[in-house]
Design brief:
The structure is a single chain. By secondary structure, the protein is mainly β. The chain has 2 helices and 14 strands. The strands form 3 sheets. Strands 1, 2, 3, 6, 9, 10, 11, 12, 13 and 14 form a 10-stranded antiparallel sheet that branches. Strands 4-5 form a two-stranded antiparallel ribbon. Strand 9 and strand 10 form a beta hairpin. It starts with 6 loop residues before the first strand and ends in a 5-residue tail after the last strand.
Amino acid sequence: MMPTCFSPRDVCAYRVATLTASGAPRTGAGNGYTGKLVQVVATPQVDAGDDQIQRDGCGDICAFVRDCPTFTGMDLEVTLCDLDTQALVLMLDAIGITETPSSDLFGLKMDSVTAGCQRPTSFEWWVKAWDGGVQAEPDSTGNQPAYFHFVVPWVYWGLGPMTHAKGIQLTTVTGKGQENINITSNGPFNDWPSEVALVDGINTGFGWWMDAALPAISCATITVSSAAS
């Protein structure tokens, strides 16, 4: 049996794909993005349920019911390396500002308060799997350096606090994640392994597996293939 007691270390890349209102990946050029980041804080949201207690006339408990806790989604706080306009336009569903005549994206403005819910995205990130003093090389990755590949299949994003002062400044976005029954089982980029597809992909609010490669990092949008399983 493959050992699985590896430590997560460092966070190396992230990837987003824009989704339709129903949660299906938006196929085509310009609908995805990969980049580097400083950190991801992922906080599970759990509904604790209700306790029902009935006491008898003497004050003793005669009936007690406790609901089981239910995982409802994942809250995200993501710190980016750059004030990455293209990534933020996609994640925040913001309005891009392009330069004339080059059509290069060089600014954005947030959408109107009357615009309703923004377009959701999926969110994936990669963390090194560490084995003692070296990066793990398990059988599952063909004895190649391994990464934990994390997925939240549906996220609504908001812009975090921005502090501008002397020194390097970081950009933070916050996300509310949830399950997505319409994510394709092999992922928006058609590269989730067949073993993940066999469990219908990561269509619940959160999941991960061992991966052997990072996505190619680009300072430009990428194509979402979302090929059907």
